[in-house]
Amino acid sequence: MIPGLGRLLYESTPAEFCSAYSVAESVERLRAATKRSTFAAMSEAAAVGKVSADSVRLQRVIPMVRNSFKPFFAGRFEVRDGVTVLTGHFGMTIFVKVFMTFWLVMVALFAGGFLVGSLGAATSYPRQVVIGPFLMLVVGLGLVALGKWFGRNDPAWLSAVIARALDVPGAGAELRQEPTIDVAAVPMVLKGVAFFLAASGVMAVITEFVELAGKAKVLQMGHWNIVYAVSAFVLAIGVWGRRPWAWWGGFLVLASSIVSSQFFMRESAQTMPPPLIRVVFGIFSCVVVVVWGWWWYAQRKHFLWKESRAD
After folding, report:
1. Which of 47, 148, 213, 259 has the most neighbouring CB atoms within 10 Å?
2. DSSP for 92-114, written as a single string
3. How far apart are CA 30 and CA 50, in angstroms?
4. What is the pLDDT of residues 31-69, one digit of tens each?
5. Could you give the maximum distance between any two Cα atoms of the chain, in Å?
6. Within 10 A of 86 (CB to CB), how many other CB atoms are there?
7. What is d(CA 40, CA 43) in angstroms, rounded to the nearest whole number?
8. What is d(CA 263, CA 248) in angstroms, rounded to the nearest whole number?
9. What pLDDT sits at residue 32?
10. CB 196 within 8 A of CB 217
11. How many CB atoms lie within 10 A of CB 80?
């Protein structure tokens, strides 16, 4: 079990890339193919990080996705027999390894302490107190394993970015070619959006027809929930079908979210917050909508614009 735990936390995969260029030119080419800040990758996936001759540190950033347990590439440029080589390894960051080690050790100590204490005649801990730390260990290790599973394709993806930038000799065609979009398949991101819209429509229907223990409605909005549910279902079908009108409909949903939230706040006279709170909430809502709108705009490439014109 201990060797398996060590691989889970400290596993590192070495990697080397022989560049067709000098160190200075390799640095410039790799820097041009990557981004420096995660904020620059808000619209589409990108390789983000630091690139210099002495230190290269890259991660795959997927918009709106946070994974602390994904692999990073850390390395540096060297010259061997006149050939520029980027050498390094893929693995979790040092901070994550140290933090998880400390957290797991502390939880394990608590688990052992409660277990030993519960066996003593003079001490009696509730069962949930004894079992709790062991469950926390399982959950913590499960989160690490799940995060690594979600990031399992990141080394190959980053390797492809590096190989294309450095024009790595002998790299396979799958690494050196630019990724293409399969026009016949529904991208996973659109599947996720469609499922989210459908789920929100279901929740709107439930809200409309389920009474809450005899409590009266605060807002008399008629059948707004039904209208929203039908709209969400139609939009979900359009997104799944990659129809251009569904792409425009996404912006309509984002815009209506601001209007509806402000309307509900004004109508809720009994619980209306102070003016300053409403202003801050409005500004924050606009920022959120702009960020999501920027991301949604980048998904335009997944919709079938050419086919729609042909129709």
Report:
1. 47
2. --HHHHHHHHHHHHHHHHHHHHH
3. 10
4. 999 998 877 777 678 899 999 999 999 999 987 778 889
5. 82
6. 25
7. 8
8. 23
9. 93
10. no
11. 10
Find the Cα–Cα–Cα–Cα dihedral 191, 195, 197, 202, rounded to 10°: 160
> How do residues 177-213 score in pLDDT, each as one tens digit?
555 555 567 887 888 889 988 988 888 788 767 644 3
- Sign, CA torsion 41/47/48/53: negative
Q: Where are the domains of the chain?
A: 1-180, 188-310
Helix 244-267 vs helix 275-298: crossing angle, to nearest 10 = 170
Question: Which CA distances in Å does 307 have to 7, 115, 248, 311?
Answer: 48, 65, 16, 6
C-beta of residue 61 within 8 angstroms of C-beta of residue 40: no
Report the alpha-carbon distance of residue 64 to residue 298 in Å, rounded: 12
Q: DSSP string covering the chain, please? A: -HHHHHHHHH--EEEEEE-SS-HHHHHHHHHHHSBS-GGGGSSS-EEEEEE-SS-EEEEEE-TT---TTS-EEEEEEEEETTEEEEEEEEE--HHHHHHHHHHHHHHHHHHHHHHHHHHSSS----HHHHHHHHHHHHHHHHHHHHHHHHTTTHHHHHHHHHHHHHT-TT--HHHHSPP---TTS--HHHHHHHHHHHHHHHHHHHHHH---TTPPPSS--TTHHHHHHHHHHHHHHHHHTT-HHHHHHHHHHHHHHHHHHHHHHHH-GGGPPPHHHHHHHHHHHHHHHHHHHHHHHHGGGGS-HHHHHH-
Residue partners of 215: CB distance under 8 A and separation at least 6: none
Give the whole-angstrom CA distance, residue 303 versus residue 190.
9
pTM score, two decimals?
0.65
